[in-house]
Amino acid sequence: MGSQPAREVRDLLGRARRLLSDAREMIAEHERAVADVRAALEPLRGRQARAELGAMPVSRLKDVTSGRLRIGALQEAGYGTVLSVLEATPYELQKLPGVGQQTRWQAQTAAEGIARATRKSCTLHIDVDNRDPETTRLLVALHRLVAVGPDLPRARRTAETVARRLDELIPQARPLGNRLRGLLYGSRRRARAAQAVAQIAGLLTDETETRLLIAQATTDLLRPPPDGALAWIDFEIRAADHYNLLAELSATAPSDRAAAEGFLPGELTARVKAQELDDTLRRVSLRGYQAFGAQFALAQRRVILGDEMGLGKTIQAIAVLAHLHARETTHSLVVCPASVLINWLREIEARSSLRAYRLHGDERPLAHAAWLERGGVAVTTFDGLHTLDTVPQAGMLVVDEAHYVKNPRTRRAKAVARWSRHVGTVLFMTGTPMENHIEEFRSLVDHLQPGLLGQVEPGGTTDRAQAFRRAVAPVYLRRNQKDVVTELPELVHMDEWEEFSAADAAAYREAVESGRFMTMRRAAYAVPEQSAKLERLRELVGKAADAGLKVVVFSYFRDVLAAVGPAVDSPVHGPIGGDLDPGRRQQVVDAFTAARGHAVLLAQIQAGGTGLNLQAASVVIICEPQVKPTLESQAVARAHRMGQVRRVQVHRLLTPDSMDERLLEIMHAKAALFDAYARRSHLAESTPAAIDISDESLADRIVREERQRLTTPH
């Protein structure tokens, strides 16, 4: 062995030790940051659990003991809640008439079991209007991790891999770093050392990039903590990131067991759970239910992701794309409405390391050529898809707002069908697989699995609805907000009934006599200066202005929005309509979001209710009832979604003794049909992992039942 090779090995080992030291430092700083969050979280979870136990009747102790505990004496002595029993001393309880040692022990053991279940499963709700020191401490601790950005999980995994491998390889390679010492070892040890040196060299192939990734994360973790005010501002801007991190670190999960009961073939459950999810190219952490959604799409290959709006369907799709491109896929295509094309490009670039290409507008030819040559994810519109030839190497097709292709006779549906037949992995995304009738749902399923529903007949009975949901289980997964995003603030619906003014009534009668349906729908705004609905809208906006809240006003009609704009004494953005260029539309939303304090955004409900994120708004006003309930629910979900930090108030303006009442009846009937066939999926109902359910004990069930009781309107 010559001196030059030994010097090269020593140099290699020196670089490896420095990288190992950097990796260990990053891991240690990350663990300290996580420990700070958990330490700040504990008193808040304890406070919230205590409040829940204080609202839980003592009778629940009897349920925990399967009816064996006699609680009459406790109730007579004034112990009305689980908390009161939990906080009592054994002496206090045992001296009560009729309470012996056995009863006292059973009561307190049951209370302790419920307390543990409550503390373990409670989800923290951060109230932006109650900035107490304990919550501020938590947000300051969280800021340290959130501020590192989406590369933190990758940096942590890289550091762990480096540390594990170099801890093992450096001692093995050490004999070759000293020529004389190397002569003392046998040929087998020297061969093992040579192999270790080769493996270290392989690990250091991308040394500069690896060191930069780890160093940047370490630097960010070492930044001084912000003051409390800045931490609160950052939370309001990036609430979804904070809550995602909290869910990950506190290991809490939605736990409504009723949402997990149902039928599912065991082999399908096993296949989804066994599906690996490669996160090499992904730059965002997934919640448990989101990871399950991505696994479902990968395991089944041709599916509809029907999650309720605001649950991160886009992120789940990107997780699938990232997995496939980390493996064998080189080209993928996303099809979406023009209104959300820019949002898709932004999300792909922000949430993954994939290249994204805009196949729309003047740049389309160049982008198309670059996509074909370099690979990545192309994003196009429904109108542009029919002119796009299938690509032999395309591995995945994502269709956003897939209900746009519910009519198989349309040009866009035929183009999607052509691509669906060509591509192996197809993901349809829609929170509204049916808007008017069941055949729309069947049409979407036929794109993916022709003939799957051939033997299933829809109908009005509960049994038929269950049979339908059971049949579509292999291709349809839906989760609802209440099951998986438990930190969302309250959503309050208020119907605002306003009598016609004289001018409104005259306009309505004229529209009825002429038989003009659309004119009847907006007759209440025909004379803006005398409109009763508009006057109520002004009052609602005024109250929001006094509270510093942002408002989004939805109407189906442009002329209604044109009347609203001048009528309110507020900064007005928009209106957003179907004719607004996607780029300009996003600029309007960004300006509304960035505005300080109160502002009003005007939007046509069929345009603004699709694909836009409006968490900045906490007041939603709907100027008239819609023909489709999905239009209203989509619009509301633009504001009441992950990232919302305030209670969302929804005001629907209605007029009695008018067609508004009939429209409400129609909407309720359509909503009931949707609930029967599409609101729940058998996969989500029967697989706890689909909605992050992990606990099934009796105490946990009681906690869930009580939470539901206390949050269900009476």
UniProtKB/TrEMBL annotation:
Recorded hits in CDD domains, A to Z, give: DEXHc_Snf, SF2_C_SNF
What Gene3D superfamilies does this protein's entry cite? Answer: P-loop containing nucleotide triphosphate hydrolases, Tandem AAA-ATPase domain
Question: In this protein, which residues make up the domain named Helicase ATP-binding?
Answer: 294-451
UniProt domain Helicase C-terminal: residue ranges: 536-687
Superkingdom in the source lineage: Bacteria
Q: Which InterPro entries match?
A: Helicase_ATP-bd, Helicase_C-like, P-loop_NTPase, SNF2-like_sf, SNF2/RAD54-like_C, SNF2_N
- Enumerate the UniProt keywords alphabetically: ATP-binding, Coiled coil, Helicase, Hydrolase, Nucleotide-binding
Q: Which segments of the protein form a coiled coil according to its record?
A: 13-40
Q: Does the keyword Acetylation apply?
A: no
Q: Name one GO molecular function term.
A: helicase activity
What PANTHER family does the record tag this protein with? Answer: SNF2/RAD54 HELICASE FAMILY
Put simply, this protein is called DEAD/DEAH box helicase
Q: Show the taxonomic lineage.
A: Bacteria, Bacillati, Actinomycetota, Actinomycetes, Streptosporangiales
